[in-house]
Amino acid sequence: MLTKNKITAVSNGSGVCADIVGFDFNDYDAQDVAEVRKIWLQYGVVRFRDIDITDEQHIKFSHHFGEAVIHPKQLQEGAHPTQKEILVIANTTKDGKPSGALGNSEATWHTDTWFYERPPAGALLRSIALPPTGGDTYWVSMYQAYETLPSYLLDAVKGRQIFFQSVYDAAGGLRLNKQVPKSDDIREWPGIVHPLVRVHGDSGRQALYLGAKGVREQDSWIVGLPMDESNDLVAQLWEHTLKGEIFVQQWRLGDMVMWDNRCTMHRRDSFSPEHIRIMHRTTTAGERPV
């Protein structure tokens, strides 16, 4: 069946991200959404350029890709004043307090809320105000990471599970409503166990699942391995993953990027606190990793 609009994907030489061309946010139908979804599932990251949409349009479009979920930062400084489904990522302040999440610091490699039982399936991030330099976002494919593993690492990850602690965030801060652990052994901390290799709920493809590369020396444990062996294997998997193709998003006003949280990881550069960066984001529900 033909789509209402002539929608195409332009990869620009990237195997991780494609630009969606021809999608009209003011006039689209179910077939147009299905075409975008097909491209999104193929690449893992898609980008819309030179769009001018409202928060309401952003939210409406996001609903086509799953039920809305609230990011933990929306319960803190990242809450939008009127739109409960939007996470505000910004370094702005109001009455001396942050009025957006993350500030101007670097965000290290991660997949969103990896410490949840059901991490989100996707996210849509739209630029509102940008600094002249810095704040670039990077994505890497965890499909590619798994599919290019050397045989000895394939054997090492087969059937394994990974434990992620849920006490500290990737920046090293104590999470909301969490207490400082009494033990130094993260295996005794609150957390979640997920498969080290997960099967994508829509594509059926396998992807490496590493959670996050935080500032702390240790945030995960491969279940059943001695801690030193686990640390060594996790380090090897990270080293391999970050040798893969990385897509770099140098933001422009009018950009919106949608990524599949189940098969990609991302990070963000820091930027000067002298400049303002404001982004609006929605998040969609996902399945429990298997």
TrEMBL record:
Domain (TauD/TfdA-like) spans: 16-283
Q: Give a GO cellular-component term.
A: cytoplasm
One Pfam family name is: TauD
Q: Name one GO molecular function term.
A: 2-oxoglutarate-dependent dioxygenase activity
Q: Which InterPro entries match?
A: AtsK-like, TauD-like_sf, TauD/TfdA-like
Transmembrane stretches, by residue range? none
In Swiss-Prot or TrEMBL terms, this protein is called Dioxygenase, TauD/TfdA family
Write the record's keywords in alphabetical order, separated by commas.
Dioxygenase, Iron, Metal-binding, Oxidoreductase
Q: Which SUPFAM superfamilies match?
A: Clavaminate synthase-like
Q: Which family does it belong to?
A: Belongs to the TfdA dioxygenase family.
